[in-house]
């Protein structure tokens, strides 16, 4: 019960929500490693127009991240994750699954590339990808950096192959780091 007293996680849908609704359970489950309270806001926040890059036909993740970080909340101790079905990028990368700002306690998660349906992929696998990636971004919010162990949830992924390869849990080293962080 190390993290239970510290924070609450709030998911904030950004833009169209129907694809996000399909993964509600996974988003909730993603918090179980960290043993914190979690909720999904029922409303969705419109995406700022300037986040869209017409040349790339994608949304700038940094603009979305700012949008979430700047929100004023009644519970400002809450960790916030903006969750979107928009395809997001940061400069010099084709796309990203998510991004987190640990110092501000906010993150963005995109289900766009994780849940892109292919004929040979089951809906269970798509759900597992969302679960792992949400849990990964939460790990960043709880102070974890990328891990060199490719099985670990905190290893960096830039393809669904890498996401599928990881386990849905953190390695012993990352778990220890979480515990140490909690004792600070
Ligand atoms: Zn990461
Ligand atoms: Zn690890």
Task: Describe, in plain words, how this protein is organized in 3D.
This protein is an alpha/beta fold. It has one domain: Collagenase (Catalytic Domain) (3-Layer(aba) Sandwich), CATH 3.40.390. 30% of the residues lie in helices and 18% in strands. It has 6 helices and 8 strands, in the order E-H-H-E-E-E-H-E-E-E-E-H-H-H. Strands 2-1-5-8-7 form a 5-stranded mixed β-sheet, with helices on both faces. It has a 3-stranded mixed β-sheet with strand order 3-4-6. Strand 7 and strand 8 form a beta hairpin. The site of one zinc ion has 8 residues, from helix 6.
Reconstruct the topology from this structure.
Blueprint: E1 8-14, H1 18-21, H2 24-29, E2 37-40, E3 52-53, E4 58-60, H3 61-69, E5 79-84, E6 88-89, E7 98-101, E8 106-110, H4 123-141, H5 160-165, H6 172-183
Parallel strand pairs: 1-2, 1-5, 4-6, 5-8
Antiparallel strand pairs: 3-4, 7-8
Bound molecules: zinc ion (2 copies).
């Amino acid at each position: 019960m190390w993290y239970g007293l510290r924070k609450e996680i709030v998911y904030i849908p950004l833009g169209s929500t129907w694809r996000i609704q399909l993964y509600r359970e996974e988003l909730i489950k993603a918090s179980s490693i960290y043993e914190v309270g979690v909720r999904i806001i029922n409303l969705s926040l419109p995406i700022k127009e300037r986040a869209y890059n017409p040349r790339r036909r994608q949304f700038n993740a940094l603009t979305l991240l700012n949008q979430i970080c700047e929100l004023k909340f009644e519970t400002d101790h809450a960790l916030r994750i903006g969750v979107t079905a928009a395809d997001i990028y940061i400069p010099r990368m084709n796309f990203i699954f998510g991004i987190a700002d640990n110092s501000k306690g906010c993150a963005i998660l995109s289900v766009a590339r994780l849940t892109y349906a292919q004929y040979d992929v089951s809906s269970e696998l798509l759900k597992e990808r969302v679960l792992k990636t949400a849990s990964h971004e939460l790990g960043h919010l709880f102070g974890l950096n990328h891990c060199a162990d490719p099985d670990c949830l905190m290893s960096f992924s830039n393809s669904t192959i890498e996401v599928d390869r990881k386990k849905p849990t953190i390695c012993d080293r990352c778990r220890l780091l979480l515990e140490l962080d909690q004792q600070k």
